[in-house]
Specification:
about 40 residues; mainly alpha; globular
Length: about 40
């Protein structure tokens, strides 16, 4: 089953061009972004 929050994290990385940019946009730590897109 698709977790839509994981999709949101993936899209933030794609749009931002980096994990760091995605983390800043989402207001979370970069390790959180990495963990969510690794699933």
């Amino acid at each position: 089953m698709i977790d839509w929050d994981d999709v949101r994290y993936f899209l933030a990385v794609a749009r931002g061009g980096s994990v760091r940019a995605a983390a800043e946009r989402l207001g979370v730590n970069h390790s959180t972004v990495l963990r969510r897109i690794a699933q």
